[in-house]
């Protein structure tokens, strides 16, 4: 395995330097691009996804490859640097001529590669929950749209926990800002008053949470049940949760529901003070299903570490990879245009015992789970949707997006306006 | 269920007589059967195991216990209420075990055990007799799950058992737990407890709780008395209640009909508001000082290398990071002694970062004295190398450094003001480090040499000081202090390869603002920036606060190029 990996890296770097452009071996394989940061701030989350894709490719090759050919990974490192993402994407599509790319994490990185994929007619599988408001012909969104994560979480808090006052706490960039805008509109539509919503933003990597947490505490002690909806991203979560623990804010009084905190993030913190805080995802490692047990075992064997956790974006890559394999088999070719035609309507099993179906808007159906953090860094599922929820590209709760619809099968448009009956042509 | 539970409280604590008991025994199965039935009709659609409850409405301890693992989260509370009502001697132990995630059921036969993790698996305790039942492998067991609502209920239920605990602090916690979700049954229990309670703190807590409950009384005189009792407190719940009854509704009517009570309540609410405002400002000031002390701690090592020696060391942040990783490694070496490992990591981090600092000075910096641009580039490259080194050794994932017991939690000054211990210790620690550095520079011969070399190198050399040696030691001292700062930061933030980057800008900002070459400037500068940031934060938000502070510094440096405390005399002009 190690040798294989070494070979991949070697090949990738050879290809990157353009030394062996179009050698005999390259024609026998199908190239799969992996566009995840292996250094810089996002390496924490993205390196795991790179390994996931390599594992899936490895397993597919053991099954005999695809269309009689072996898959070959081309790994590049965009180094958590947004412009570099676009550069590396160009390299993958134009130099290496990869058939498909699995990659990106933040919305900024996705937005940066989007024009490249549309220009070169590439195919990108994007595995992370995001703010929606986008549907590109060349991108398959296997992560959750807001209606598959944020909205159900708020519903749960409103109905089951009887929350009356809301703190929307986020990191200051596009995903939290858009999600909070949608949530604010949703809450107001549900009759929550202005004075019962507090919206707060902090910079990336924020570490001094004293005032913020004290503000939450004050806001939450007004006699009404309060919850925090957190779109705080990355490193900043650790000091945030530490401060919550220090100021003795217990999940029983003010629960925090997070959209960016999963098993991987919790493996870096002492979770004892966090027991009971919530996270909303479409997958938890603790969910018992035969597919999940097999996946966890496969992952821990591949990575040679029995303690490594799995998480939601990994499941998204698992689904995305299988969707792509199925589409290629159906189309009988790896040609992007044909694969894109074959993709909508395909169904593959997810890891929690259901199936994921690719919709015409390039989003997939997902079940939604709410989990409570346990002392060992895992989650206990306390609530779940009945069946799966179809991903919605354009939010129904934002005035500008309400009338927009994405449909790449009949309408061939990412933002068809149902009122003016027009497609603006710009998909993001 | 409420009915049955209240009945129980009354029977258990007010009149523990056989007559009541009998009445209870007649009533309880009836109530349970009714309840189980309603539970089933409510949940029949989603919870299959709930039908067990209806089939065999077990009222005995073991019977209820056996239903617990398969019950849905909403049914569990009812089962637990039955469990408490069964009066079994080990009910409290079972509740405690459930709360602590120690209650497991055996997959093979569904039997429930209180467990304890040992090396060989789970040590089992029979929940009925509380005797040990051997040790078995953990594989065959599933945990009995809880959720927030259930845990809250459990805490309240356990608190009722502890109301008679001989330890006053246990009683105090119990009273607070019970008041979190007080109903008339808990209020009755507390009223009974008050009559026999001797400890003044516990009495006070109960009295406030009872007064809040009394505000709902039908009798205006009772309500007035309650308002008077609450007029001296700063309790948040009391404030909410007083505010609620003294504010007009949308239609101009009041929840409180009696004018006298309403005026008294309004006055009391006003007073609490006033004091909370004052304590709120004190809290903001403390937040500012603690942020300031973190800035000072991060910057003070730089104040020596940059301020005293004039070396622009971009790898300063990485020296802080090395200190934080030292704390992590110490904790891995001494996993059982949290407090000791943190205390030991202070000198250890000083040594590690200090030695790395000396090595940097000897191998890189000394060839670049007087060439600031090259120094900047070389040390920046070094910072990247150190980051990647740590990433390769410890993985790019953040490492967690646990806080020792004495550093977690809050120092409660009163109901409106409590300070977190970890911040408090870091403020004190910063002051200690500052004093120690001042003593080293002003009172030791090393300090004298450092100052001599920094003021006039050639004159110092003429006096027989080995300036190269002094340079290395000074750089090592500054780096060592950075390492110590890393230990402190490991208690507040992520220990990861990027830790240093987050603090390098702030550190330079503080040193430049405070005045290059002046430790006092660093202290005052750091504290000023901290307090200014925290004063701005509630008004404009964390993002804007940072921008405003930066703009302020830029403007300030335009006016006073030398910072807050400029160095005077030959030293400043000599360079």
Protein described:
The complex is a heterodimer of chains A (428) and B (575). About 4% of the residues of chain A have low confidence. Chain A has 13 helices and 19 strands. By secondary structure, chain A is an alpha/beta fold. Chain A starts with a helix and ends in a 5-residue tail after the last strand. Chain A folds into 2 domains: 222 residues, Response regulator (Rossmann fold), CATH 3.40.50.2300; 162 residues, Response regulator (Rossmann fold, 3-Layer(aba) Sandwich). Chain A is globular. Chain B has 3 domains: 153 residues, no CATH class; 95 residues, no CATH class; 250 residues, ABC transporter involved in vitamin B12 uptake, BtuC (Orthogonal Bundle). Helices cover 69% and strands 6% of the residues of chain B. The longest helix of chain B has 50 residues. The relative contact order of chain B is 0.07. The N terminus and C terminus of chain B are likely disordered. The interface between A and B is large, with 48 and 52 residues.
Structural category of chain B is mainly alpha
Shape of chain A: globular
Looking across the biggest beta sheet of chain B, what order are the strands in? 4-3-2-1-5
Count of DSSP-assigned helices of chain A: 13
State the domain count of chain B: 3
**How many angstroms separate the termini of chain B?**
83 Å
CATH topology of the largest domain in chain A: Rossmann fold
């Amino acid at each position: 395995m190690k040798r294989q990996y070494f070979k991949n890296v070697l090949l990738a770097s050879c290809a990157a330097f353009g030394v062996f452009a179009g050698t005999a071996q390259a024609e026998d394989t199908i190239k799969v691009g992996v566009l995840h940061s292996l250094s810089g701030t996002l390496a924490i989350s993205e390196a795991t996804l790179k390994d996931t894709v390599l594992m899936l490719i490895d397993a597919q090759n053991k099954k005999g490859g695809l269309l009689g050919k072996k898959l070959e990974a081309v790994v590049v490192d965009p180094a958590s640097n947004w412009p570099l993402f676009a550069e590396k994407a160009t390299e993958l599509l134009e130099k290496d001529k990869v058939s498909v790319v699995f990659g990106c994490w933040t919305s900024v990185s996705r937005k940066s590669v989007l024009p490249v994929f549309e220009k070169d007619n590439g195919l990108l599988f994007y595995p992370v929950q995001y703010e929606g408001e986008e549907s590109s012909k060349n991108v398959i969104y296997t992560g959750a749209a807001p209606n598959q994560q944020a909205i159900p979480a708020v519903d749960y808090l409103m109905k089951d926990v009887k929350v009356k006052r809301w703190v929307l706490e986020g990191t200051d960039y596009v995903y939290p800002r858009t999600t909070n805008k949608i949530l604010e509109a949703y809450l107001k539509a549900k009759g929550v008053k202005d004075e019962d919503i507090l919206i707060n933003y902090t910079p990336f990597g924020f570490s001094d949470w004293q005032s913020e947490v004290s503000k939450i505490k004050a806001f939450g002690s007004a006699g009404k049940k309060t919850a925090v909806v957190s779109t705080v991203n990355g490193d900043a979560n650790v000091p945030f949760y530490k401060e919550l623990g220090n100021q003795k804010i217990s999940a029983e009084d003010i629960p925090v529901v997070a959209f960016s905190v999963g098993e991987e993030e919790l493996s870096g913190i002492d979770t004892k003070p966090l027991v009971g805080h919530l996270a909303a995802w479409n997958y938890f490692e603790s969910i018992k299903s035969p597919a999940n047990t097999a996946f966890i075992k496969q992952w821990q064997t591949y990575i040679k570490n029995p303690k490594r956790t799995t998480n939601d974006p990994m499941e998204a890559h698992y689904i995305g990879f299988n969707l792509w394999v199925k589409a290629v088999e159906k189309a009988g070719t790896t040609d992007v245009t044909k694969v894109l035609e074959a993709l909508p309507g395909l169904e593959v099993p997810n890891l929690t015992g259901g199936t994921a179906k690719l919709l015409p808007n390039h989003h997939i159906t997902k079940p939604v789970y709410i989990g409570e953090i346990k002392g060992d860094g895992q989650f206990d599922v306390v609530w779940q949707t009945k069946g799966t929820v179809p991903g919605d590209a354009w939010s129904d709760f934002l005035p500008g997006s309400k009338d927009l619809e994405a449909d790449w099968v009949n309408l061939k448009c990412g933002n068809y306006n149902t009122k003016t009956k027009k497609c603006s042509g710009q998909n993001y | 269920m409420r009915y049955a539970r209240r009945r129980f409280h009354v029977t258990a604590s007010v009149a523990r007589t056989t007559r009541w008991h009998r009445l209870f025994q007649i009533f309880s199965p009836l109530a349970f059967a009714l309840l189980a039935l309603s539970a089933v009709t409510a949940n029949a659609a989603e919870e299959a195991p709930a039908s067990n409850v209806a089939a065999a409405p077990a009222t005995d301890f073991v019977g209820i216990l056996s239903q617990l693992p398969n019950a849905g989260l909403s049914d569990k509370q009812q089962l637990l209420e039955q469990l408490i009502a069964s009066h079994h001697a080990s009910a409290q132990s079972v509740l405690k075990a459930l709360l602590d995630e120690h209650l497991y059921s055996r997959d093979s036969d569904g039997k429930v055990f209180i467990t304890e993790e040992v090396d060989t698996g789970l040590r089992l305790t029979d929940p009925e007799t509380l005797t040990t039942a051997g040790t078995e492998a953990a594989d065959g067991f599933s945990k009995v799950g809880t959720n927030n609502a259930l845990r809250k209920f459990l805490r309240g239920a356990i608190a009722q058992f502890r109301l008679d605990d001989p330890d006053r602090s246990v009683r105090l916690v119990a009273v607070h737990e019970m008041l979190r979700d007080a109903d008339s049954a808990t209020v009755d229990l507390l009223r009974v407890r008050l009559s026999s309670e001797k400890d003044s703190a516990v009495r006070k807590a109960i009295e406030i709780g009872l007064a809040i409950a009394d505000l709902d009384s039908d009798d205006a005189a009772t309500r007035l008395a309650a308002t008077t009792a609450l007029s001296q407190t700063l309790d948040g719940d009391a404030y909410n209640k007083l505010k609620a009854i003294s504010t007009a509704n949308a239609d101009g009517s009041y929840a409180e009909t009696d004018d006298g009570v309403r005026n008294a309540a309004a006055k009391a609410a006003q007073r609490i508001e006033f004091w909370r405002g004052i304590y709120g400002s004190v809290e903001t000031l403390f937040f500012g000082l603690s942020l300031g002390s973190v800035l000072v701690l991060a910057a003070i090592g730089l104040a020596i290398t940059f301020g005293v020696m004039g070396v622009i060391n971009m790898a300063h942040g990485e020296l802080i990071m090395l200190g934080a990783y030292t704390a992590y490694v110490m904790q891995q070496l001494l996993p059982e002694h949290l407090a000791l490992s943190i205390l030991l990591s202070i000198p250890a981090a000083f040594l590690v970062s200090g030695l790395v600092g000396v090595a940097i000075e000897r191998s890189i910096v000394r060839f670049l004295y007087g060439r600031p641009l090259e120094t900047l580039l070389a040390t920046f490259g070094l910072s990247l190398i150190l980051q990647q080194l740590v990433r390769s050794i410890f993985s790019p994932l953040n490492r967690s450094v646990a806080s020792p017991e004495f550093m977690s939690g809050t120092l409660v000054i009163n109901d409106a003001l409590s300070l977190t211990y970890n911040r408090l210790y870091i403020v004190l620690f910063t002051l200690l480090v500052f004093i120690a550095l001042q003593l080293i520079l002003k009172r030791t011969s090393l300090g004298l040499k450092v100052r001599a070399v920094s003021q006039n190198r050639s004159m110092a050399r003429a006096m027989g000081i080995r300036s190269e040696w002094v340079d290395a030691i000074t750089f090592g001292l500054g780096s060592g202090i950075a390492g110590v700062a890393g230990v402190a930061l490991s208690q507040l933030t992520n220990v990861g390869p990027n830790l240093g980057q987050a603090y390098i800008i702030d550190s330079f900002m503080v040193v430049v603002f405070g005045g290059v070459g002046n430790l006092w400037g660093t202290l005052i500068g750091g504290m000023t920036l901290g307090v200014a940031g925290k004063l701005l934060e509630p008004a404009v938000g964390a993002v804007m606060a940072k921008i405003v502070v930066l703009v302020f510094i830029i403007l300030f440096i335009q006016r006073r190029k030398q910072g807050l405390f400029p160095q005077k005399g030959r030293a400043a002009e000599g360079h």
